[in-house]
């Protein structure tokens, strides 16, 4: 069965080499790629982009590690170079040095313990300077993480083959703005990826951009159903019911202007045959209330029902 390939305006930048079980974009929007060898490591970008859990674990680990290091230094200098520590038990002395390090690091300085002599004062000063830098850096990272423009389009988990106007059929999936503030000038581009077996026994990706019923909207207050009609220009035109079980992928990118960030944000999209439902249609997820306000039911984003697909 021949696949009709639509001309892509831009090279997708993806490899043609493929494998039957592979996908280009994961469901979380990240590319399905693993790098080997040396690459530039930008700690700032990593700390801004990692999950909040990993960020808090990193900051806590650094905080504890730095203070354990200074507590060990103070313990090595000796208890005789610090006033206010009267115990002779080594473990308790270390605990006091750890408390002193945290107090100095945070610039609280209760005054119960004080350094005596040049060496102890030098390292106590370094401890407070490192604490000031740590607070400044973590504060900057917190601000960068909170202010980083990010899209939050909630996308249906399934893509459906549904009946369409004029006794036709179409691929459909839904998307809604997951945030409470408004977005405008939203656009989307979707491409299909099929895997074709070569005479050498390997698999090669074949890409085709899908023509959409509507590829951009001016405002985005409600849900939006993305529709690709299966017409003669569609790479799915000659698909039978059995062909829809073949490996394929729909991948794309969605962009919109975020009113709060004042910037364009984007989010990648991916569906495979595992997310596909044949002969289904979405149920309505919005209604007009008696007071004239449009009610959008977010929990109904993935609700669908059986539908008769025309031959």
Automatic annotation (TrEMBL):
GO biological process: monoatomic ion transmembrane transport
The keyword Cell membrane belongs to this UniProt entry's keyword annotation: no
Record domain Potassium channel: where: 68-146
UniProt membrane topology term: Multi-pass membrane protein
Stored Gene3D superfamilies: 1.10.287.70, G protein-activated inward rectifier potassium channel 1
Pfam family, one: IRK_C
Residues that span the membrane, as ranges: 55-75, 96-116, 122-144
Keyword Membrane: yes
Taxonomy, superkingdom: Bacteria
Keyword annotations of the record: Ion channel, Ion transport, Membrane, Potassium, Potassium transport, Transmembrane, Transmembrane helix, Transport, Voltage-gated channel
Domain Inward rectifier potassium channel C-terminal: 164-309
Localization, UniProt: Membrane
PANTHER family: INWARD RECTIFIER POTASSIUM CHANNEL, INWARDLY RECTIFYING POTASSIUM CHANNEL 1, ISOFORM F
Name the record gives this protein: Inward rectifier potassium channel Irk
Organism: Persicobacter psychrovividus
